[in-house]
């Protein structure tokens, strides 16, 4: 449920925003975007070279354990361990396809 995911997104706003880059890259337009591909953000080499395309499965896997799934990523976050919370968060992230 994206509405539940929106309440969980508070965990992300220290580094991310939906519509603009912060310490971490913006989250709009994730579905189908290749990891590390935004031209206006300086990603780690690990993220740029990961060959991941973001979708429901890859986001769920990454958000469960970012450092395990992309060793060398600069996203120093332990992950969302609760499966349902992670699914809600992914649904919220994927609901924002348009970047303004």
3D structure, described in words:
This protein has helices spanning about 1-10, 45-50, 55-65, 65-70, 85-95. Helix 3 (about 55-65) crosses helix 5. With about 100 residues, the protein is mostly helical. The radius of gyration is 12 Å and the shape is globular. The model has no long low-confidence stretch (mean pLDDT about 95). The chain contains five helices and no strands. It is about 35% helix and about 0% strand. The longest helix is centred in the last third of the chain and has 12 residues, at about 85-95.
Task: Describe how the helices and strands are arranged.
Layout: H1 2-8, H2 45-48, H3 56-64, H4 66-69, H5 83-94
Helix pairs in contact: 1-5, 3-5
Low-confidence stretches: none
The assigned structural class equals: mainly alpha
Strand content: under 5%
Give the rounded overall mean pLDDT.
Answer: 95
* SS elements, strand count: 0
